[in-house]
Amino acid sequence: MESKTISQNVPRERIAPHASGGLMLIVILAGFCASVACIVFGSIRLGHESFVLGGFLLALGCIGITAFSIFSAGLKVLAPNQAFVFTLFGKYFGTLKAPGFYFVNPFVTANAPAKANGEPAHAVQARINGSEAQMALGHSKRISLKTRTLDNRNQKVNDALGNPIIIGSVVIWRVADPTASVFSVENFEEYLSIQCDSTIRNIARLYPYDTMEDDTDEKTLRGSSREISENMQRELAERVKDAGLVIEDVRITTLAYSEEIAAAMLQRQQATAIIAARQKIVEGAVSMVKMAIDQLGEEEIVVLDEERKAAMVSNLLVVLCGNKDAQPIVNSGSIY
Question: Are strands 109-110 and 100-103 parallel, antiparallel or unpaired?
Fold first, then answer.
């Protein structure tokens, strides 16, 4: 299996420098209160014609409010199974993954997956997961680390015998390295969906849908779905490893012949079943005829020559192998 490495300089993940959010919140609130007090006392001093002190207090209060307003942008709340990936003036700053209340550099920018196909990242994420909550997470530029489900759409592929089939799958996945997920690919959710389509197509064409032979050990999509799903999981995990994604499980949910050959394949399966049933019936009939002749000869109930044995065998096989009930004919004369 060939692994495709994403040829980009992805920074190694590190913890972003941070401080306690609760402590900084107290400092910011105290700074706001002090700034408002400076403005109030500055206005009072200006009313008493103390222009130097009043102007200084007013300027100090305005600067304080502006500064602490900027500092308040550094307060970040992180819930469990979420992550922030920060950049500072275009350079990677760090990542936060542990839940808590943090204070970081107020000039950092939280990064989220870029737009895909004209949709914002949170809309793509909500479409893949079918969750309005995930839409809110994408909008706040938090990266979800929760285990998620990708319901891959049904697609038409050719199996190993060239038969067109319809196959679909469900992928259970999660983000393990949010830094690589953000910086290595444009949109890791869309990237996963495309790689899933490619993986299913590559694996499905290596196996036949089904085999009509009972004594073969060949793996098929219908009969060996568990082993084939494991192969899909290994290949898909290798493809998306460099994007910081972990594939926990892949399961085939839809598997059927395409419409244009479904009727013909159904007739073929029915014919195979009929032939197999007929073989069992003939084997049983031959065994019963042999048992009947042996018992008649051993117990000397009746002595039959070869011609009469052949006639009895023929009659018994007709009765035992026929599709309809046999109509008996009673011979009232001599059998000879």
Answer: unpaired
